[in-house]
Amino acid sequence: MERVKMAKLIFLGSNGWFSTKLSSSVCALVDIEKKYIVLDAGEGFQHLDKFITEDKPIDIFISHLHLDHIIGFHILPKFHFKNKINIYVHKSSKKFLSNFIKEPYTASLTLLKKFSNLDISIIGIDNKTKFEGYDVVFRKLVHNVPCLGFRFSFLENGENGVYKSLAYCTDTGPCKNLNFLAKNVDILITECGLLEKEKPNPIWPHMGPIQAAKAAKFSNSKKLVLSHFSPIKYPTLLSRKLASLSAKKIFPNTIFAKDFLKINF
């Protein structure tokens, strides 16, 4: 494992479904010593170049293929990163994502290499996939399409140091795999697509602040960050704050994400 002095988490988009004046659709950046890790590629993806300032590799993890999680790839021609870029998606979804990042939908990897000099690979992952510089565990979540949750672990302060960990689990309803991925993590990022008293729809599962807080408490997470907010149900920062206050009644160390929120851990 690589030595990590301090991992930084930056939210670039915190809406689900679609972007608004308040927030772009979901994207987050984890900055560790020798890697950048990107969590989903909604329209918040457009802000990557504000925070990627070094030439270290960029690893992008895609939870699932709903457009609010991949539409940011249309923005790739904006960038001129020298970094090697790997896009990780479940192996069953690789062909669909590969067909999306090409004509007629957007610029192909070939064109991106020719005109923007971007070196991009799309990698289908399974349980045998190896990652350099950090550990990754992933499991299927409960959604209306195949969706992955991820748990990342980084070794801080050398071989005799301690692990820092982060779980990213959206979109999903409550499930055993969410609890497994979130167990004892330093930060759990999950969604807030439902209102406090709204009942989940089994056809299209999501969670609200209460379900998210219960998952954090059950899994003994250290901090819960609510993100992937419904732009209709949570149109203001105040509405997000109220959701976090509801969650705090069950899991006190809860905060809500907003665009450009930075967390050191």
How would you describe what is shown here?
The protein has helices spanning 48-51, 94-100, 109-116, 176-182, 209-219, 237-248, and strands spanning 8-13, 27-32, 35-39, 58-61, 84-90, 119-125, 135-140, 148-156, 162-169, 187-192, 224-229, 254-256, 262-264. α4 (176-182) crosses α5 and α5 crosses α6. The strands form two sheets. A seven-stranded mixed β-sheet has the order 6-5-4-3-2-1-13, covered by helices on one side. It has a six-stranded mixed β-sheet with strand order 7-8-9-10-11-12, covered by helices on one side. 18% of the residues lie in helices and 29% in strands. It has one domain (8-264): Ribonuclease Z/Hydroxyacylglutathione hydrolase-like (Metallo-beta-lactamase, Chain A). The chain is an alpha/beta fold.
Topology:
Elements: E1 8-13, E2 27-32, E3 35-39, H1 48-51, E4 58-61, E5 84-90, H2 94-100, H3 109-116, E6 119-125, E7 135-140, E8 148-156, E9 162-169, H4 176-182, E10 187-192, H5 209-219, E11 224-229, H6 237-248, E12 254-256, E13 262-264
Helix pairs in contact: 4-5, 5-6
Q: What is the general shape?
A: globular
Order of helices and strands: EEEHEEHHEEEEHEHEHEE
CATH architecture: 4-Layer Sandwich
The CATH topology, please?
Metallo-beta-lactamase, Chain A
Number of strands: 13
State the name of the first-level CATH class.
Alpha Beta
By CATH's scheme, which homologous superfamily applies? Answer: Ribonuclease Z/Hydroxyacylglutathione hydrolase-like
Mean pLDDT: 96
* Low-pLDDT segments, ≥5 res: none
Instruction: Give the strand order of the largest sheet, numbering strands 1, 2, ... along the chain.
Output: 6-5-4-3-2-1-13
Question: Measured on Cα atoms, how large is the radius of gyration?
Answer: 17 Å
Strand percentage lies at 25-35%
Computed structural class: alpha/beta
